[in-house]
Amino acid sequence: MSDLLLLGLIGGLTLLLLLTLLAFAGYSGLLAGVEVSAGSPPIRNVTVAYKFHMGPYGETGRLFTESCSISPKLRSIAVYYDNPHMVPPDKCRCAVGSILSEGEESPSPELIDLYQKFGFKVFSFPAPSHVVTATFPYTTILSIWLATRRVHPALDTYIKERKLCAYPRPDPFHVPTGTAGRLLCA
């Protein structure tokens, strides 16, 4: 009788573990759709502190962690230069960091110095007139992995279906708060 009870307990715990993993994957965006649209950019001119990475996009988590640990209240940003479905993983390039300022405001010199002290470079992006954007949830580290497999194809399909000239191409612009996009050319 105790063996049957033990097997039942093990089975119940295994089922509970599987349900927990499924709930975590769902919360991370497994069942979420990728919403793609074209129009005004979600971000205007931005000044970012970043580090360059060459290699699989799945290995960028440490850079997100590093930039967030310097100033946790700033939003993270990544600029992915290559489509991982067309470029070998070891050749994929991206820049990962934090948004120091948006719009007309300038970042404080202290903030710039702090990021530079940790090896980050600082760059200002001008505001594009039109972009293709994709929205995907960023709730866990698994969200990044899911996004690298779902956002690129959704952006590619949207651009091809509408015969848009989007560049940098195939360079999605990913903001882990849930927005990705590409600049549009006229």
Automatic annotation (TrEMBL):
It comes from the Eukaryota. InterPro entries: Reg_factor_effector_dom_sf. This is Testis expressed 264, ER-phagy receptor. It comes from Gorilla gorilla gorilla (Western lowland gorilla).
